[in-house]
Amino acid sequence: MVSNRKVSALERKKEVLENLKRFGAEIYKQMMLGRFPQIQMPSRSIENIYYNPELRQYVLGNKTVRRSARNIRHIRPFTQLVWAAYFAYELTSQRKTSTLRDVYYSSQAYEVPFKDQPESNSIITDLETVIGFSREDFNIFPEERSAVFGDLTIEYTVPGYEGKRLNLTSHPDGVMIGPALTSAEFVKTSADKVIAIEKGGLFTRFIEERVHEKFNAILVLTAGQAPRATRHFIHRLNKELELPVYIFTDGDPWGMHIAMVIISGSANAAHLRELTTPDAKWSGVWATDIVDYKLPTDPLTEIDIKRLYELQRDPRYKDKLWQREIKTFLKIRRKAEQEAFSRYGLTYIVDEYLPAKLEET
Amino acid sequence: MVSNRKVSALERKKEVLENLKRFGAEIYKQMMLGRFPQIQMPSRSIENIYYNPELRQYVLGNKTVRRSARNIRHIRPFTQLVWAAYFAYELTSQRKTSTLRDVYYSSQAYEVPFKDQPESNSIITDLETVIGFSREDFNIFPEERSAVFGDLTIEYTVPGYEGKRLNLTSHPDGVMIGPALTSAEFVKTSADKVIAIEKGGLFTRFIEERVHEKFNAILVLTAGQAPRATRHFIHRLNKELELPVYIFTDGDPWGMHIAMVIISGSANAAHLRELTTPDAKWSGVWATDIVDYKLPTDPLTEIDIKRLYELQRDPRYKDKLWQREIKTFLKIRRKAEQEAFSRYGLTYIVDEYLPAKLEET
């Protein structure tokens, strides 16, 4: 299977740079005309975030906000946003990456004050909204890293590695999903599916039991809640290589939500489209699996139960499967970890459970 | 530089298996002689843990404990330990890996009851004490994963990869430190030092700024507190390749302690010798760096301060450098993150701070 990516990584970077430039040029133009510069962008306030059942993710509505240098209360966030665009342009054109934390401290080098990191984070999200790309596209990456293993050959685009290729089975502990992998082209794969796994121990078990060969799968470790770069990587595997995605998590509300955020994203990222994989499936551990497989369990805590009631009302969880599983959790009042299958022997999860669930979902 | 490892990975596994077998044979022999089987092992109680200034780590004293099948209160832990040895033998001889969590659930497949995971964890630590190897040697790995990048060629010993080699610059986001890397042989390196880094963002910055080339360094990401497999890997880089190790953490008591655990280990692992690197250096961020470099800071919290007083009394922290830094923290009442250097531009930490600190420590 060869990638059907429409836009190469380099073309994409070019587009990001052009959008950033256009943003600057627009402000410059206004000033040259003797006007107070202003910008308009979609509002990210809660009243403007809607769940879109067709896209199966949150989106922004039509409300916009305007920030004008004429308004004294706007001057601060306006200046910060312009600086952030400048900084993003520098990063992207110099092909350096950064983190949200770095951005916060870097601003001090330019004497652009942010009172704390939440303020600088929020400005970076504004910049995503304005230029229509996620921050990873302008080289601001999360601190967290997760990993991947499987038959996929990639070609790097980062400095020093241009044109170099790596097959992602090269290292049997998995390779990290960072800026280099995120910006790599997909060259070739024999895989016909993606299996995302919450926990490191099970990721290693799957590699040892050759799940990648037996099930033709690319294995992705989410390491708990998947970092954004990992969600984008899963999105790309699904879109560019047309691979179905199956997600395996612990059997509790937190595991469900790890799967859901990969599938339908979060309200915080309602302004972005490339972090979700709506056709991905949550394959387990379901509450009904706990019953069917007689798994060792722990009781649900108060916090677990409160969380389940929240999920029950969440529009992303309206489908039958999710509602049934939430109800079952609330009925049995128990939860189970992925490792609980080891009660039937270490390889049971691969020999019995995994094929059954891939068939079922 | 070629590795001066004394024992190959395969010989080491053989030794582990022999020790496990000897443990079983000893019990079997006692029963054949018509005796209640018993075992004797070093006590791991607090009164038997001492700091050894020569080894610069905690060690166990001479007190031993005896567990006898004759004593009704001993039968449970005795049986659990024998089962754990059996399970470890199965894992190691079948070349499968596992986690502490898997061990807990697996015991249910054998109807060996553990009331909870702390109980099974404690039995695994007993087994380490009895057979003189760490649990990673009998294939029980931590859940957490960290990463490495740099010019080191390794040769795998895990099934399916025997004899295959990988250079650890192959993937510019870094490769995971898991069972395969841990059990690999070191073949060749041009590096003359190891730099361990607490945070993912800085690890990526160092790779992008080619610290591995400019400073001939192997870069290790600890991702917070270094997992045991990573501490063992650093130990091996230091012992087998004779590479000096420099550790960079946040400038706060928690960062200090990340460095200290790599250097001198923890009291919990007083029965093991291969998780520490006593000659490794904590190179920063020091409290005195915060002052000298005028870094942006946050105030120390109550918990930070309490922790500093604990460290001040800890025998591992008795050296001048540590005492001076603890005092300075307590005096300035501020802490700083590694990213704080970005106030002088993104590359300042690599261009100015890193060379200065490598010289100084």
Description:
- The first copy, chain A, is globular and about 75 Å long.
- The model of chain A has no long low-confidence stretch (mean pLDDT about 95).
- Chain A has helices spanning about 10-30, 75-95, 100-110, 115-130, 180, 200-210, 210-215, 230-240, 255-265, 285-290, 300-315, 320-330, 350-360; strands at about 40, 50, 55-60, 65-70, 100, 140, 145-150, 150-155, 165, 175, 185-190, 195, 215-220, 245-250, 280-285, 300, 335.
- Chain A starts with 8 loop residues before the first helix and ends with a helix.
- In chain A, the strands form 6 sheets. In chain A, strands 10-7-13-12-14-15 form a 6-stranded mixed β-sheet, sandwiched between helices.
- By secondary structure, the first copy, chain A, is an alpha/beta fold.
- In chain A, helix 3 crosses helix 4 (about 115-130) and helix 11 packs antiparallel against helix 12 (about 320-330).
- Chain A folds into 2 domains: about 10-140, Winged helix-like DNA-binding domain superfamily/Winged helix DNA-binding domain (Arc Repressor Mutant, subunit A, Orthogonal Bundle); about 145-360, Dna Topoisomerase Vi A Subunit, Chain: A, domain 2 (3-Layer(aba) Sandwich).
- The first copy, chain A, is about 45% helix and about 15% strand.
- At the A-B interface, strand 5, helix 3, strand 10, helix 5 and helix 6 of A face strand 5, helix 3, strand 10, helix 5 and helix 6 of B.
